[in-house]
Structures are given as C-alpha cells and as structure tokens.
Amino acid sequence: MEQEKLWTRPFIMVSLINFIIMLSMFLLLVTISTYAVDEYHVSTSTAGLVSGIFIVGSLFGRFWAGKNIDILGQKKILIIGTVLFTVTTGLYFLSFNLPILLAVRLFNGMGCGIASTATGTIAAFITPMKRRGEGISYFSMSAVMATAIGPFLGMFLLQFITFRQLFIFCLVLAIIACFMLSMIKTNDRPKKAITSTSKGIRLSEYIDKNAVPIGIVVLICCTAYSSVLSFISFFTKENNLVTAGSFFFLAYAVTVLLSRPITGKLMDNKGANIVMIPALISYVMGLFTLSITHNAFTLLLAAVFLGFGYGNFQSIAQAIAVKVTDHEKMGLATSTYFIFLDFALGFGPYVLGIFIPTLGMHGLYRTMSIVVIIGIVAYYFLHGRKAHLYE
Hints:
Elements: H1 9-29, H2 32-40, H3 44-72, H4 74-90, H5 98-126, H6 132-157, H7 163-180, H8 212-238, H9 242-245, H10 248-270, H11 273-291, H12 296-323, H13 330-352, H14 356-382
C-alpha cells in the first residue's frame, strides 16, 4: 500500500516560514542584550529583560492564537502573525530609547508567538494522520536548526557588521517569509465564535485540557533545558572550552537531524513510549555528562546525548499534544504545548540563575539531570501508562 505524501509544497513552505521566523528570533535573542548595553548603557539585568521580554510577548501571542485559530482559520492567523512580526522587526530602527525598545521586543515576540502557533498547527493539520509523528518530527527540525544556526550566525555576523545592519538582515528574512505566505493553502474550515453569556475569562478558551498533562512534562523538562540555552556560554568560558563550545549546538543539531527521521517513524509505528523513554534517559545522561565535563570530548558527547534526548523529546511531546485532543482542537492543543514550552524557556533561567552561586555550574547541571528524572516519572503517570489508548 502506497504511503500518503508528506513532502507537499504547503508542508515545505510552512516549515521554511517557521525556520525563517525562528532564525530571526534566535539571531536577536542572543545579541540584543549586548545592543542594549552598548546603546543605552544599561545594567546586565536590564539587558536580560530586553532579551527575555520577547518570550513574554510570545506567550501573549500564543494565548491569543490558541483561542482564535479555529475561529479565524489557520492561514489568517499565520498572516496576522507574520505581518506583525515583520512590521515590529522594522520598528527596531525607531527604538530611540529603552522603553520603546522594550515595547518593540514585546510586540515582536507576540508576532512570533502567533505565527509559530499557526505554522505548528498547519504542519500537524496537513500531515497524513498515520504519518503525523514523522511529519511533526520533520517540521520541528526547522526550529531545531534555527536554534543551532541563529545564535552562531548572530555572533558571527556582529564581528563584521553593525547592529543596524543586523536589524536589516532580520527584516529581509521577515519580508521573505511574508512573500512565501501565498504558497500555503489550508483546507481547514473556520467555525463561528461561540458567544458566552458568562462573564470573565474562561481558561478553556486558551488552554486545551487534554494537552495539559503532556504540557506539565514539557514544563519540567524544558525548564531543565533552559539551563543549557542560557548558561552554556558561561559554562564553557569557566572551563576554558570556548572553542569547543562553539561546536556544541552544531553537534546537537547534527544528532537531531540524523535521529529525527528514525524516531518519528518509530512513534507512528510503535507508539510514543518506544521513543520517549529512551530519549528522556539520553537527556538525563546528557545533563549528567555536562556536570562532569572538563574537556572538549565530554562537552561534545553531552551535546550528542542532549540532541537525541531533548531534541526528540520536544517533537514527540508536540505530536502527543496533537494526538490526545479532538481533531477540531488541534490549534488550541498546539498553542497549549508552546505555552508550556515558552514559559519554561522564558522564566526558567531567572529561577535557575538564583541557584548558580550556591550550586556552581557543574552542580546546576547535576541538579537538572535529577529534574529530568522527575520528568520521566511525571511522563509515566500523566501519559506513558495510558499511551496505548492514543495509538
């Protein structure tokens, strides 16, 4: 029996748009704090706020998109998010003081949150049901590659160009994404908004209850990974591994690229547990390896463990969030997944940073390996033991 086609033009285009938006996001996420210090002479904590407020905006965007994507339609939400992201990227040129820069970062994050919620939903919606795990694995590689290439490219380009030229580069990327919107067609049918007689905000309008259990696991495990994203540069500098550290995310990305096609198919054929449990164990091994790292070999070995572990956990968790919900709530489930993910990656560093003076960098990663073990237990009780019901 012939398999349903996965690599359609809409699937390729939506993956490329997601990659472009995420690439621009990570380009600025790792460089904007330096810009704030150089341009406005702010403290490092304020510079951290300039960087982190983007995630707050992204959360607001995801809440709004999750509520409205089934009402307005996936394509319309994608257009709104991409255009907002593009316009606010252009506003970096008008950020004449710190308050304006903070506002631009907030709204830029909202555009990113809206657009990426739409791309994730469209990718899940247009993927054949029997290949959904494989499809989401391929789609989420666009974000993984952006995570690896974005920080490297941002730091590399700033050796040769100014921040203003970097903003131009990001704006060009966003404009390219806008032009690509016309190549995406969706066959979802927007439904009429349900008018409620009850006053106040209903949580069910913003969060899909079926996706909350896997969302809790995402919150635990991604909080641990926020320690890698935020502090690996400090860790490599402390251990005189800056040169090897520049290859850390490259080794991570290569591992993900090699493993995702296999793990995605395994999930579709054998179920989530066959991939999730080994991935989480590899995740623990990666963090523990970091905690005992004092040379380049163990640093890159940790990156490989994390690439197979966290890199696959992320895509499988997203696929689970979509599988456990009703078909018409795919958009809300995708938004719910990303809300938990963004909350962990956005606020995790602020919480974990408090413990670094006490634990030290090696102690932090040792502690994070224990946190992921807690995540494994949470996964088993919240989803793993009943995963067969959704296969």
